[in-house]
Structures are given as C-alpha cells and as structure tokens.
Amino acid sequence: MKKIFFKALLTSSILMGCTAADNTQSNVTEAATAVVNATVVEQSKEQLLAPWQGPFQGVPAFDKVTLAGLVPAMEQAMASELAEIDVIANNPATPTFENTIVAMEKTGADLDRLFTYYGIWRSNKSSSEFRQLQSELAPKLSAFSSTIRQNAKLFARVKAVYNSDEVKSLSPEKQRLVQLKYNSFARNGATLNTEDQKRYAEINLRLAQLHTQFGNNVLADEENYVLYLTKDQLGGLPESIITVAAAAATERDHDGQYAITNTRSSMDPFLTYSTERELRKKVWQTYYSRGDNGDEFDNNAIIAEILKLRHERVGLLGYKNYASWRLEDRMAKSPENAIALMESVWPAAIARVDEEVADMLAIGKRQDGIEKIEAWDYRFYAEKVRQDKYDLDSDEVKQYLQLNKLREAMFYVAGRLFNFNFTEITDGSVPVFHEDVRVWEVKDKTSGEHIGLWYLDPFARKGKRSGAWATTYRSHTTFDGKKNVLSSNNSNFSKGAAGQPTLISWSDAETYFHEFGHALHFLASKVEYPTLNGGVRDYTEFQSQLLERWLSTDEVINNYLVHYKTGKPMPKALIAKIKQAATFNQGFKTTEYLASALVDMKFHTVDPKGIDPDKFERDTLAALNMPEQVVMRHRSPQFGHIFSSEGYASSYYGYMWAEVLTSDAAEAFAQAPGGFYDKEVAAKLVEHLFSVRNAVDPSEAYRAFRGRDAQVEALMRDRGFPVKIKTKK
Asked: For site-directed labelling of 627, which of 103, 561, 633, 663 has its Cα 20 to 30 A away?
C-alpha cells in the first residue's frame, strides 16, 4: 500500500505542477520521493545480499539485482566480514588450524556473493552509473582489505599456527593452506610497524583509485572511437566481416554504414583484409592510441603514479623493486629468471620478423608498388604471404569455424579428457544477466554426478570490456559441505547477422579453447578449501594454453569444422595447409607478446622516480632492437593486465613461462600411444595438473605429471625457431 500511495502522490504533483503557492505540496513531494528512493535502495540492498536460491545449490539472481543498493550492500557485507574476523582475532583459545585458519575460510560469504554481481557490472555490463559507484567503492574496498591484513591480533594467531607443532601433523593440502594464509599477511604489510602500516594502507587506497580510473579510461576510448565506413570503403573485406560491420553500425544508429569498433575483434580482421591503406593506418593508430591521446582519458600520468606507489610500497617491505616482491612466490622466483627466459627467445623472434617482413615486402612491391612495410601493413601482407607460401586463405578457413560448432567441439574434448557431459538449461530456471548468455549443466558422464554449471557470454557489446576471460561465481570446496562450481566464459566475438552463424578466425578459435581451459580448471577442482582454488600467475595460464592444442586434433577437425553453408567437413587438403602453416607468422606473434612482457618487467625493476611512461616504453623497445613494423600487443597506456589491477603486474611474462610447460606437456600427449586422447596421460593431466588447483606447489605438480621439469626446447620447436643443442662439457 505504501508504494502505491507514494506513486500516486508523485504522479499528482507532476500533473498539478509546482508554483510559489505550492511550496507545501513541493515539500511533501520531495519527502515522498526521498522515502520512495530509500525504499528502492533498501530492497535492492536486500536482494544483493540475499543467499542464492533455486536449483544447483542456488544460483545468482541476475534477473533481480539492481545497482541501486550496491554501495550500502557492499558496506554491510564488509562490516559483516570484519565482525567475523574480530571474533576469530579475539578468540581466547589457543590458536589452532580449526579455530583460526578454517574459521577464516568460512568468513565473507555475503561479500563473495556480492562480488559476483560486482564483477558482472564491471566487466560485462559497465555503465556510467556503475563506474561512478565503482570509483566510490574502490577506496572503501581497499581500506577494508588493509584492515584485515593489518589486524595484529589476527596475524598473531595465523603466525602461531604457522609456527606450531600441529602443522607438522596436517595433510600436505592443509599445510599449504597455512603457508598461503601466512604469506598473504607477511607479504602484505602485517609485519610492518604502525607508521609504515599506515602508509602501506594509504598507498593501497590510492592504487585502488588509480587502477579503476585506468580501466575506465581505456573503456571510454574503446567506446568513443568508432570508424563508420561507406560502401565504397569496403575494398578487400570478406562478406562475413561486412555483415558484422553493418550490424554494428545499425546497433549504433548508423543504418546504411559499416562500423569498425575500437576493439581487437574488429581491428584485427579489418587490418588483415582491407585494401584501403590509409583506412588501415587510421584504424591501427586509433586502436594503439587508446589511453594515449593527451585528453581527459590519457593514462600516462596514472601509469607514472602507479609505478611510484608500487615501488614505495614494496620498499617498506624491504624489497629492491616491485618485480622482486611479486615473483618471490611464483614459479620463476625472481625477475632475473623470467627475463632470462624471455631473452632466450627474443633473438629468434625478431630474426623471424626480419624474414617475414622481407617476404611481405616482395609481394607488396610486386602487387602494390610499396617501398616499405608499415605496422598497419603487417597483417594485410602477412595474409598475402600466407596465401602465396601455403596457398592458405584465412577467410576460407573461417567458413569452417562456426562458433556453435566450436563450442560442441570443446564439449567433445571435455568429455574425452575429463569425462564431463554438458546439457543446456533452457527452462529459465537459471537466471542470466543478458539475453546472449546461455547456461549448461555439467555432469560426470559415468556416474551422472552433478559437477556444476557453465555460463557463456560470447558476444561484444557496449559496456563490455574487450578481450576474453573466465571466472567463477562459486568455486568447488568440501570443507563446509560440498559446493559445486559455477563457472563462466566471456568473449567479444562480433555477432553474425540475424539467422546466420558467427564465423571466427583460427586465432579466435584458439582463444575460445584457451578460455574454456580455464573453465575446465575450475570444474575439475577437487580441493577442500576456498583459498586453494587460487592460482600462481605464471602457472594458471598453462592449463588453458594446453587446451588450445585440441583444436587442431583430427577428431575435432573432422567432426566439428564443417562449412557453414554446405555442412561438409573441412577438406583434407585445407587441413594439411593449416598444419603446414602452423608456425607461420610466429615472428610477429612472439615479438608483439614478448615486447609487452619485457616492458612490463622493465617498468617494475627500475626506480620509477620521474619516469615518463611513453619515453620509457620507446627507450626500452629501442634497446631491445624492436622491429619498427611490430608494436607491443598491449601498449602501456592500454595495458589493463598490469595497470587496471595488479593481477599481471610484472607477471605478463607468465604466458610464456606457462607456454614452456604447455609445449612440453603437449609433447607428452603427442608421444603417447593414444595421442592427444591417450587415456593414461589424460588421467595424469586431470589428477596432477587440473584437480589440485593450488593445493600443490606448481613445480611439484608438473613433475608428478611429466616425471621431470619442463624443457624450453619444446617451445622453440613449437614455434619453428632454431633449437640450440646442449653439449656436455
């Protein structure tokens, strides 16, 4: 009744208008509006904090939650967790594994659920309203984290357990949990004096604001720069790309035109096929200038401040630079080891670029009379070389790469390796946050046991961050009753026209498999405690990179790569060309990646006082003899991996570290009697490399699978680079 009354009151006030004689009515209206708004906020807050209902142990209420109550919900959830933490910290009983470590694992359930919604609004459905709330929440979340990490009583209890005799009698999994808990405090300021702890918290607070601003600036440039083409500017573009561009223009109220958006999924194919060289240059410059346009969204000053604050913070802990602190508990252990790996591959990569450029220039001179290959020419003429050397047309390959068929192929691989079965849920019992999202139930094929759910959000749209990623809404645990997995894959494919399949490139298909590898890592988990579902950055990409290898297996190619019009399987001759060209363009791919990884590491191993990020990037690349025809995969002002959070900061090298593991593990399958579907090797893969998550040290886990450490020579063979033969002294 209250809602109806206030609605009627508001409506009547609007109809009557408001004059000087109506001040009383105006005051009543304002009061009524305030009460209505407060009611909306309160209801939204309650829904955001509500335990998940429905099937599958409860699922997120994506169809009910709203932004209205986000801030008060976050504040209440943080307060609840701090109260739980205080109970543990002030427990008069002697610290034990159960009353301290396990008790901590049980805290924060409300906040965990809330972060699921927060993550969707941040990554999949961003808006100006959310970004404003995000900016408001960032410092509060940072302060919340610092309050826990700097709780002296809590750390004293964790430290007591860490040093106790009890630890020696615990299982290896529980011992690792204690170690990770202790490190999460000791490496994040818990051992500092009061004054330094205060400064540490201040730095984290400011970094949270800067990370948020950096990411929002990149997203703004992606949304604000769209190139609209007319029909006479479509030279060289395949019909599939034209159709997608037309749909993108229509979506943005530019009917009759063709939109090239400022995202990789739109930029990459345009640069590959467009015969309009000046337009290629414009698209290239716009894309690689994100966050670097000297305007309100420029990120250079933000980068400089981030680097200085990170350096100061680890200095408080006694580390010489940020990278040394970050890599201490990674597989690489030190920046020197990571740099050594990258520099061992770099010379072969840039030498291959020289060869690729020479091949491209020969064609460019002959066909178009150009005298130099520019950066915006690389993809275009690389495609020409591919056709010339291997008679392989990327657009021809694309006709066999239907998004839905590739998804079925991934399910097939998951069935063969993990014994998983995927069944789509179509009865509406599992809410989704956008009409494009679909959901599958995952079961064990033999026992029928429910494993979890898999959400898929495949298409690009306004408000969705670029790239591809995987996440979980709930991870597997057993310590407090078995919890099943809610996993998610997210991509930015350009949606095909209505009624037409979405066709993607071979590279995009590899990315599709890659991200599904992360989902399988989530779904295969057998760990007992939440913390053990975390990962070691230079290891967690390994499982997903490895899954890319199954895209090119005969079983997948022969059964799922069928022509979108005829339904006929990919011809054997085309398959042979794809496999023959497997190492094609590796100079470009390896160099653009390594350039980003090396610049990231150099940023985080120097004293950043007075640093000019643009100049530092240029000088670092010059010192590396970076080929002028190639640009970093992620230039610094748009390098969200390392500047919109600390997830990959001084850790982007991890993709290559993981690639060494990937290449080595792939050879284990290739040499097995059953090839990539060998049951024995697959069982070891699941047991030692997927199901244990972070319950086992990654180096030990890999040795359990392979019987030895990984060897870099496998990576060099994979990329077609020269392999130096080791000789005994």
From this structure: 663
* 57 Rama class: left (phi>0) / alpha (psi -120 to 50) / beta: left
**Backbone torsions φ then ψ of 422, nearest 5 degrees:** -110, 125
Q: State the SS3 of 8-62.
A: HHHHHHHHHCCCHHHHHHHHHHHHHHHHHHHHHHHHHHHHHHCCCECCCCCECCC
487 phi and psi, to 5 degrees? Answer: -110, 160
3-state secondary structure of 65: coil
The whole-model pTM stands at 0.84
User: CA 34, CA 40: separation in Å to the nearest integer?
Assistant: 10
Q: Where are the alpha helices (DSSP H) in 391-428?
A: 394-398, 403-418
Q: What integer pLDDT is reported at residue 582 of this predicted model?
A: 87
- Dump pLDDT digits (tens) for 33-76: 666 688 999 999 999 999 999 999 999 999 999 999 999 999 99
Cα separation, 335 vs 550, whole angstroms: 32
- Annotated catalytic residues are 515
The Cα 85–Cα 80 span in angstroms is: 9
Helix axes 128-149, 70-89, angle to 10 degrees: 10
Residue 489 DSSP SS3: strand
Q: How many alpha carbons fall within 13 Å on the CB side of residue 552? A: 19
5 has a pLDDT exceeding 80: no
Give the DSSP H or E segment for 498. none
Cα 441 to Cα 55, 424, 436, 454, 528: the distances in Å are: 11, 6, 17, 6, 22
Q: What is the C-alpha separation between 550 and 412, in angstroms, rounded? A: 10
- Note every long-range contact of 61-67, with CB atoms under 8 Å and residues 24 or more positions apart, other chains counting: 61/431, 62/117, 62/120, 62/431, 62/432, 62/433, 63/431, 63/432, 63/433, 64/431, 65/117, 67/121, 67/129, 67/130, 67/133
User: Which of 130-134's residues contact partners 24+ apart within 8 Å by CB, and which partners?
Assistant: 130/67, 130/70, 131/216, 133/67, 133/70, 133/71, 134/212, 134/216
Rounded CA-CA distance 389/580 in Å is 10
Nearest to 630 by CA among 683, 588, 674, 679: 588
